[in-house]
Amino acid sequence: MAVKIGLLGFGTVASGIPFLLKENGEKIRAAAKDKIEIAKILVKDDDEKNRLLAAGNDYHFVTDVDAIIKDPDISIVVELMGRIEPARTFIEAALAAGKHVVSANKDLLAVHGAELLAVAKEHRAALYYEAAVAGGIPILRTLANSLTSDKITRILGVLNGTSNFMMTQMVDEGWTYEAALAKAQELGYAESDPTNDVEGIDAAYKAVLLSQFGFGMTIDFDQVLHQGISTITPDDVAVAQELGYVIKLVGDIRETPSGIAAEVSPTFLPKEHPLASVNGVMNAVFVESIGIGESMYYGPGAGQKPTATSVVADIIRIARRLHDGNVGKSFNEFVRETQIAHPSDVKSAYYFAISTPDKRGQLLRLAQIFNSEAISFGQVLQQRANGDTARVVIITHSLSRTQLSNVLEKLEEVADFEVLNTFKVLGE
Ligand SMILES: NC(=O)c1ccc[n+]([C@@H]2O[C@H](COP(=O)([O-])OP(=O)(O)OC[C@H]3O[C@@H](n4cnc5c(N)ncnc54)[C@H](OP(=O)(O)O)[C@@H]3O)[C@@H](O)[C@H]2O)c1
To answer: What does the record give as the active site (predicted)?
Structure first.
């Protein structure tokens, strides 16, 4: 008997599933211990259904979700519609009806994952979502299974292909943010509203999920500090290169003595850091742990086949467990009480670009302000900007988030100094 699945949505990722089921049918059958069959596909309306049928898609398309959720023959529901609603309502109803669910919806899982997992647990249903973080990189299952005996101390990740493509153009070609965005939109990497990608929101969703799998703690999306790439200027990029760094949008989740800290921010990476060579639309997750030390998982973070591959892997896992009679185990069993780090425990070196009138004694005044917060300099560079203005670039030694906000407040109070940009620096 085949395991019957119902797809919710038939867009980019979902329409890659039939290809994989056909192309790798034998292997999938051996792993799942049963044939996997697409029984029904939910589409929005009859127009869409007729369009898909006319295009040669020989499936049973339905326009009412109940046709899937109430079908006793369907055991796995695969949500690939995206966005919060109606995906959340549909998944909840499917779980409540005892269906197992696979999704790739990071937005939904990062914000409403806890409540959906509770419904899954109540109904002894599986809810798997490997594709929600870094599409084609099997990172969640790696953290949950292969690294289960290890203690993870930090996870760093290039988690958004669109912004990484843009940063690569800005670094390698010296493009402005605006030019890089226009190119990303022309190539279909960025949506017409790119906010989620360029402002670090998409990567922050993934950081929430990584915090659960890597550290057993559920950090709320609102507790992930996120800063995007839109304020990065060619001057920042050039000075980073001059000092031996590459700027990338990096997700950073780590455990400190007081708890966990997660943020997404443009970060100066030393050129020799493995993440510095992750270019274009590629993603990578760099894990620091006590046992293995450093390991990096690299691959496509999006795209039809890579993402569908992760989705089908989840489907296979559920089908196999259905066959073995042990379905319903949670995707991630590592759960601890969540403790959020105190800002004084979250430490990094920082890059400051500060504009100041080009007159004597300014550097000394700056040094005094930083010194009043016990912040010391690693590197200082003074550049003439234009006319009477100078641009001072400082790479500090390690400082805490508390020190950072204090010094920014003090700099704000001095009319002579304008902080142009502040970014985290790794490896100082
Ligand atoms: N694309 C990737 O590379 C990638 C990578 C990782 C994760 N994901 C995640 O995978 C999910 C699917 O992404 P995708 O790129 O395949 O999106 P997509 O191409 O936009 O496909 C979603 C499909 O679902 C349809 N849909 C939306 N609401 C529906 C409803 N109420 N009933 C029936 N159909 C509905 C959409 O129709 P309309 O177009 O008419 O709205 C569209 O055809 C998202 O959660 C995304 O974040 C995608």
So the answer is: 206 (proton donor)
pLDDT of residue 428: 62
Given the residues 206, 248, 347, 424, select the one marked as catalytic.
Answer: 206
Residue 209 pLDDT level (bands cut at 50, 70, 90): very high
Containing H/E element for 396? strand 389-396
Task: List pLDDT tens digits, range 180-208.
Answer: 999 999 999 988 899 999 999 999 999 99
Residue with tokens 């493509």: 165
Please give the number of the atom of ligand 1 that sits closest to the Cα of 15: 16
| Tokens encoding 152 | 């993870």
CA atoms of 404 and 409, how far apart (whole Å): 9
Q: Whose CA is nearest to atom 21 of ligand 1?
A: 11
Summarize the confidence of residues 88-100 as an average pLDDT: 98
Full set of structural domains in the chain with CATH: 3-136+304-324 (3.40.50.720), 142-300 (3.30.360.10), 343-425 (3.30.70.260)
The structure tokens listed for 25 are 């049918």
Q: Indicate which atom in ligand 1 lies nearest the CA of residue 11.
A: 21
Is 82 near ligand 1, meaning CB less than 6 Å away?
yes
Give the pair of three-digit tokens for residue 176.
């402005």
Could you tell me which residues come within 8 angstroms of residue 183 by beta carbon, excluding any fewer than 6 positions away? 166, 169, 175
CB neighbours of 87 closer than 8 A, spacing ≥ 6?
Answer: 8, 79, 81, 103, 105, 108
Residues whose CB is less than 8 angstroms from the CB of residue 394 and which lie 6 or more positions away in sequence, other chains included: 351, 352, 354, 366, 370, 377, 379, 380, 381
Catalytic residue list contains 99: no
Question: How many Å lie between the centroid of ligand 1 and the Cα of residue 395?
Answer: 42
Q: Is the pTM of this model over 0.90?
A: yes
